Amino acid sequence: MKTTALKLIVVASFVAFGLSVQADDGFFGGGDKYNGEARGKPVIPVQVNATWQQECAACHTAFAPGLLPAASWTQLMNGLDKHFGVDASLSPSQASEISSFLVKNASNRWSAKTAPLRITESAWFKAKHNEREVGATVWRRPAIKGPWNCGACHPGADKGDFNEHSIRIPK
Q1: Beta-ladder partners of 86
Q2: Which domain range does residue 61 map to?
């Protein structure tokens, strides 16, 4: 009986390992498919920051810290007075709290020399959302508005879930 149970555990482990390796395309940190733009897991840590959720999600998706390296988050948080054409200034304590959260949970495997301010400017984003996959007319749909609106097509974006099997592109 113990031998059968052990065999089942070993087989299940190999199956699970095989599935995780299959799903790893470099974007999740296993390789250099995107020129050094690989992030570690998890995208969103188990313990999230309430101030980050409240303040960032007031205007757009509260982008997962693991989508960019620490250098990007630092630069972004230091320029909130000119945040993509909008003054998104916060109190010094809020800015410090959010910045610490983002930097602490940033991508831990990013080796590219770039630190983009926009997730949409990264090589992995462009590879995943290329013209063949998502045409320019798709971005202009009223329900989508633009490539920055992750939640329009990724229903779990606010939880860091960008699984390709759950994508729903609005008409």
Answers
A1: 83
A2: 25-166
